């Protein structure tokens, strides 16, 4: 039931009068969380001049809170059309516009939205004609886009784009050909983690730098591609991309990364619908949250690299530098990457009385503080993060059930009630996070985690997804 029925009908009448080619219907729309709702929608073409005149097919879904909430907008390409991913369109054909982001009734209207859509499409045409070979290669993606725009997503179906069942074939895709992406490829290859590694180079122009060197020296079982379909049937997809735009503020930098992920995450999620997404982009906690939202994957299969590198270093220091082997096996670095990370423990040794317990705790904390001070002097260079990524991928692909401190959905832990990702000790396997390991209760640690969760949630609330 539409809450503001009369206002909605009046708007749709205006659209029908201005664009008589639009057809209206009521259909079931499936949201990213799997919920469904019968919604009004209309589809047709809008006229766009881009040198020549084009009719761009679109479909708009009207939410039941209209006109106080903006519609959900998609391109509706035919079989011989390809989607030109850009500032305003992602790989699935979903349309993003400033008008939608700033929607406010009564200033915002459907007619105003369509006019801005035409203006933006005249700056950057959202569709292009496919050759017959391109059309065949992308037919699977177009079919998926058609289902999305019909609101009929089948998130459990497995992509068959690869043309065969990969079976036990272990394939990893690394998205992004910067220093971190190449470091991940080399680390995965060096540790013999996968049978095949695909490096998706999304940069403009010809191959440069490290990508060209990978081709020159022919690293075994590594493929370099600019086509998302090359990632099909990956078991792990590693996201390393970061926007290099002209953003000035920290929020603008993050928003720039979010805009970049809009065109990437839905595409790789489509081609590898059973993959584990492993996020190494910055800031890792927020970009893992964004990847979870954009992919519609379950929370267990979207993981950030988090504090895995710091935890491994922390345990090594306790064992080898400070000779505290007993402590090291239960020691973790958790929380937020950067200065706000904290040491924690997954168990404590039983002691005879409260006095001994206090002494043991003080001794442990002194050692932990020394290790954390040493840790502060260790940077996170691309090659070291690459080794950490290979370590995580190895645990996932080989179903090792090993504990790692990774960014995972922290809601429900330590009295955190918001949807934020923080590093916590988790058992990893082929399905991603199998189980979160229980931490020793420590009020100071919980307070720091809650503080990190609060600041991350505040930032997320300002982002336009």
Task: Kindly describe this structure.
The chain folds into 3 domains: 5-129, Ubiquitin Conjugating Enzyme (Roll), CATH 3.10.110; 171-304, NAD(P)-binding Rossmann-like Domain (Rossmann fold); 307-462, L-2-Hydroxyisocaproate Dehydrogenase, Chain A, domain 2. Residues 152-167 and 349-357 have low confidence and may be disordered. It contains 15 helices and 17 strands. The chain starts with a helix and ends with a helix. A 6-stranded parallel sheet has the order 9-8-7-10-11-12, with helices on both faces. Strands 1-2-3-4 form a 4-stranded antiparallel sheet. With 465 residues, the protein is α/β, with parallel strands linked by helices. The chain has helices at residues 5-18, 98-101, 110-123, 132-137, 139-150, 179-190, 209-216, 250-262, 265-271, 284-295, 308-321, 325-328, 354-376, 382-397, 443-462, and strands at residues 23-30, 36-50, 52-62, 72-75, 81-83, 127-129, 171-175, 196-200, 222-225, 236-239, 276-279, 302-304, 331-334, 342-345, 402-409, 421-429, 432-436. One of its GO terms (molecular function) is L-lactate dehydrogenase (NAD+) activity. This is UEVLD enzyme. It catalyses: (S)-lactate + NAD(+) = pyruvate + NADH + H(+).
């Amino acid at each position: 039931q539409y809450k503001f029925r009369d206002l909605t009908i009046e708007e749709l009448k205006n659209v029908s009068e201005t664009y008589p080619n639009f057809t209206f219907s009521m259909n079931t729309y499936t949201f990213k969380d799997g919920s469904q709702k019968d919604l009004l929608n209309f589809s047709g073409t809008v006229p766009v001049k881009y040198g020549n005149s084009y009719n761009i097919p679109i479909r708009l879904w009207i939410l039941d809170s209209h006109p106080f909430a903006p519609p959900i907008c998609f391109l509706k390409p035919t079989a011989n059309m390809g989607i030109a991913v850009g500032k305003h369109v992602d790989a699935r054909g979903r349309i993003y516009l400033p008008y939608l982001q700033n929607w406010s009734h009564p200033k915002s209207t459907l007619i105003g939205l369509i006019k801005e859509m035409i203006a933006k499409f005249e700056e950057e045409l959202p569709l292009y004609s496919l050759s017959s070979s391109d059309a065949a290669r992308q037919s699977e993606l177009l079919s998926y886009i058609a289902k999305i725009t019909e609101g009929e997503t089948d998130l459990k179906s497995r992509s068959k784009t690869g043309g065969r069942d990969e079976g036990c074939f272990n394939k990893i895709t690394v998205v992004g050909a910067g220093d971190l992406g190449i470091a991940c490829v080399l680390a995965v290859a060096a540790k013999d983690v996968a049978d095949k590694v695909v490096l998706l180079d999304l940069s403009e122009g010809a191959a440069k730098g490290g990508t060209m060197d990978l081709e020159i020296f022919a690293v075994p079982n590594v493929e370099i591609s600019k086509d998302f379909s090359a990632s099909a049937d990956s078991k792990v997809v590693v996201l390393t991309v970061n926007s290099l735009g002209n953003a000035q503020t920290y929020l603008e930098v993050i928003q720039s990364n979010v805009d970049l992920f809009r065109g990437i995450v839905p595409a790789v999620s489509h081609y590898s619908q059973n993959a584990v997404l492993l996020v190494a982009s910055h800031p890792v906690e927020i970009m893992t949250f964004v990847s979870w939202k954009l992919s519609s994957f379950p929370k267990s299969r979207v993981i950030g690299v988090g504090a895995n590198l710091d935890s491994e270093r922390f345990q090594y220091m306790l064992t080898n530098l400070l000779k505290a082997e007993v402590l090291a096996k239960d020691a973790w670095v958790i929380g937020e990457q950067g200065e706000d990370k904290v040491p924690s423990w997954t168990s404590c040794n039983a002691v005879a009385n409260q006095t001994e317990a206090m002494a043991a705790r003080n001794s442990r904390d002194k050692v932990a503080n020394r290790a954390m001070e040493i840790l502060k002097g260790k940077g996170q260079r691309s090659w070291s993060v690459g080794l950490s990524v290979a370590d995580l991928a190895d645990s996932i692909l080989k179903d090792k059930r090993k504990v790692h401190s990774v960014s995972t959905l922290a809601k429900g832990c330590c009295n955190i009630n918001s949807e934020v990702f923080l590093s916590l000790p988790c058992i990893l396997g082929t399905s991603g996070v199998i189980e979160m390991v229980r931490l020793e209760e420590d009020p100071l640690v919980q307070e720091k985690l809650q503080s990190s969760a609060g600041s991350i949630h505040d930032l997320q609330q300002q982002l336009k997804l």
